Write the structure tokens for this entry.
Amino acid sequence: MNRFRDLLLSLLVAMVALSSCRKEEEIIPSSRVRVGAPGRPGKIKGFFLLNEANMGSNKATLDYYDYTTAFYTRNIYAERNPNVVKELGDVGNDLQIHGSRLYAVINVSGLIEVMDVRTAKHIGKLSIPNCRYIAFKDGFAYVSSYAGPVKIDPNARLGYVAKVDTATLKVVAECPVGYQPEELLIHGDKLYVANSGGYRAPNYDKTISIIDLKTFTEEKQVDVAINLHRLQLDNYGKIWASSRGDYKGVPSRLFVFDPKTEHVTKTLEVGCSNMALSGDSLFVYSSEWSYLTGKNTISYTVIDTKKQEVIDRNFIKDGTDKEIQLPYGLAINSEQGELYLTDAQDYVHPGQLHCYDLKTGRRKWSVKTGDIPAHIAFTTQPLHPLHH
């Protein structure tokens, strides 16, 4: 009898342990809320939003907005991929759709997570150290990499661009570029890479690397400005490049780079943290931190890319910019006539996504997101409902 009691006791202990273990591994379900009005979308059916989350927290998450139902669903990745350990990983840095796949660049985890765009289910992943941004052409993905570990280091090594075969998800070649490369842009048979040198401050890099895609070799580096970050191609074949400055005496600025002459043709005294193009209008926000003042200077500017001049000093017209603590992500769906602006708030708590009417500059709706909402990818293939 004692042996039976002992056996029963050990079974109970095992069951309790198993139960507590299951609770620890419990998948946090998605949550959804209706925002805006359901409608008949055009070509674009919805968008994904990648929340970066704080470094070291391993909490990058994925949200989805459906134009047909007007439902915004938070944290879709975990429940659609219950067998993926550690979920999306540490710090989501870029999100792009290519073909039928959704690519999330997870910076600190050093991986590209590849999902089916219709289900958000895991297809595969590849490892690229300290990866930053991704672009595509002719069956290949090109990924900028800081190459070295995530740390400030005056002797940090040169970065590189990895060439990835999208069929096999294997890195097939690497091309060295400048220090701490950021956004990359493909125009014709050339790949342009913004080199920041951010880890080597105050000795920032100041170049754009130009890579010949046919040979996958760096042709040259062209001086633009220190601490480069963003690149945007306009409708006239010009590249708009942003510099973050040095956060002290050298301010953030926007530069027009002509790929034909390979020179900077204009400098605009406009700070730029992020930008998005709609027709000839370049919408730019700047959240410029200064070590001297300990504050962010925030602005919302519109530039006419044909005339290359500022046409609006604040694209938010209803005063709601005063409610935005820290603008962080920006995207435009010209088809819907909507601009999306995210607010990272204090970097620790869930952020906000704001939808603005592109023409009037008035806010249509807002919704709570994950931590540090940052990167939006529009999809022409609607996300399938989750069938339990």
